[in-house]
Amino acid sequence: MNFNLTSGDHVSVGEPVSPLVTQSSGSPIGPPAMYVYGGCPLVDNFDVLQPVGSAFRAVAYTDPSKSAVIAQATPNAAGTTARFVLSGFEFASIRDDQTVPPQTTIDRAEHLRDILIWFQNLMGDPVGIDALACENRLENNYPNPFNPVTTIKYSIAERGHVSLKIYNVAGQLVRALVDEVQSPDQAGFSSRWNGMNDQGQPVSSGVYFYRLTAGNRTLTKKMVLLK
Questions:
Q1: Is 32 helix (H, G, I), strand (E, B) or coil?
Q2: Which domain covers residue 41, as residue numbers?
Q3: Into how many domains does the chain fold?
């Protein structure tokens, strides 16, 4: 791989801590844009590379003259072509550049797909977030009946405001477990209720309802606190 190391610390050459890196013109390796998440000294000091010879800039930092990812294809003595990709940042640092509206595929998946294609593998499009079995779903709490703690698992289909609330049989709000904006996660979400109300007071034994509201859909299930 023909290259020079311009710097072992992207911040020292004027780049932001978490730069928005972009696909270079004519490069087969993308996606068009993605964030590289930094912030931890030494661990997240990303390399700034300089392609030499037949190597080319695949992905550039904020300054388009500074290379974040370079690649090279070199014919070898065996009559085949050796292909290389060198990145100045670790794969785990990749973050999406767009969250609202949500992307259909994550930038990390697109970047990996393009690299595999560059290595001449036959690849389809990455699976979209909406196709990763993400749906509005509310599981049965466990254990049930419970005393004093139970776990509620759920998943959501799209990014938006999510609430998970506990009500008594009279329809009165007892506890708000979740009340925030969330994005789909293939692993789903988990929340625990310890039998306390919003004032931190223990509630009595009885039947309670837990209600998930995400987007335009509401799901409700029943549980029993038995002391």
A1: coil
A2: 3-129
A3: 2
